[in-house]
Amino acid sequence: MIFEGLAEKLQNTLGKLKGKGKLNEKDVNDAMREVKLALLEADVNFKVVKQFVEKVKERAIGQEVMESLTPGQHVIKIVNEELTNLMGNVQSKINFSSRPPTVIMLVGLQGAGKTTTAGKLGGYLKKQGKKPLLVACDIYRPAAIKQLKVVGEQLGIPVFELGDQKSPVDIAREGLEKSKIDGNDVLIIDTAGRLHIDTELMDELVNIKQSIRPHEILLVIDSMTGQDAVNVAESFNSALGIDGVILTKLDGDTRGGAALSVKAVTQKPIKFAGIGEKLDELEPFYPDRIASRILGMGDILGLIEKAQANIDEKKAKELEQRIRKQQFTFEDFLEQLEQVKKLGPLNKILEMMPGMGQMKQLKDIDFDDKEIVKVQAIIQSMTRQERNDPDILNASRKKRIARGSGTSVQEVNRLLKQFEQTKKMMKKFAGMEKSFKKGRQCK
Ligand code: GDP
């Protein structure tokens, strides 16, 4: 889970406040000392931590808390708001030019994820109806051009390249011309990186900048490198001037130091976050949602957006009806699995649910997506009649299903048991809903 270490510590510390009816200055000071340690351990810039803690204390010890009915929760609310502020408060979008093409130049150190991100960003913009062109200006790293071409092919996005013999400035300039001819409205330029910042690299980037005047210079940094990433951001910003940051590898970042410091240190917003190696694993960066995730409040909005984009509403309604009427069968179960699969890997979905990050039991369970595939195979090996009436499953039928799905009879039995439990649970829920509605009508 992203920022798992930090999230756990903050949630534990703040959880202690939750139960208290009254808070005095000492309670707040003690809690803030722990918050400070947690943030420092997460590799957040120390100046940022200091300011953050001061701000929360100032607000929490002031009148706000005195008047609040649940002071503990009020402090959590303040921490949430201040974390959000740290990361820039609102989501920062790409500034599209009123006279296309909009030119986006991606810069960053080698290995930060630039080439991958160029593709991801292209794919993201294509989904929004844009017509991007990727331009391969990294002529130094062997295979960088090839990599961009492969990525472009996978996404169905054209890639402009002139091999590695022309200068990056020329390639960028010709790419810009090409986009005008072909009617591409966004140009994404993948530039060269180095292992460390050096003046030669910066000079080259400045030359490209002056030659094609990009609308956005976005710095790609690896969030797992913590404060190093923030230092890189400062250097690029002072030498080149950047418009924003794309933070990659957030999926592997348990600490969160870069995400929480980069805006406060450089004054430049994080515009996108990379959350996996796959080409669709790039998300706009929403400070409020990230703050909520860190504090275990979940990211319900994100989950809803995912669901809206992927789930067939009509089918969901039908399913709801069937559950209400208690007609839930293996056919429905299969359908439901298909829908859930569209939302992405299970552990990522769970991360977005409030309180889930804190549930220790869940951490030990391996939410293996292969399990879903197995369950699907078992159901698919059943006949229609069996799916609708699992009671007819005798030993020989079970054996046949196990063989057909490449599983064992034990696994088939386990699924049948789980299915029965799910049905029972649904019955209970339906019952609860009824009595709740009745209760409301009586009022
Ligand atoms: P470049 O040298 O900056 O162009 O970096 P690449 O685009 O080649 O990426 C370096 C490595 O980071 C590759 O193995 C990518 O798959 C990986 N990578 C990039 N973005 C992400 C991300 O958001 N999450 C994860 N887990 N890996 C990423």
UniProtKB/TrEMBL annotation:
GTP binds at residues 108-115, 190-194, 248-251. It is found in: Cytoplasm. CDD domains: SRP_G. Its main location: cytoplasm. Its EC number is 3.6.5.4. Residues 269-282 form the SRP54-type proteins GTP-binding domain. Composed of three domains: the N-terminal N domain, which is responsible for interactions with the ribosome, the central G domain, which binds GTP, and the C-terminal M domain, which binds the RNA and the signal sequence of the RNC. Part of the signal recognition particle protein translocation system, which is composed of SRP and FtsY. This is Signal recognition particle protein. The lineage of its organism: Bacteria, Bacillati, Bacillota, Clostridia, Peptostreptococcales.
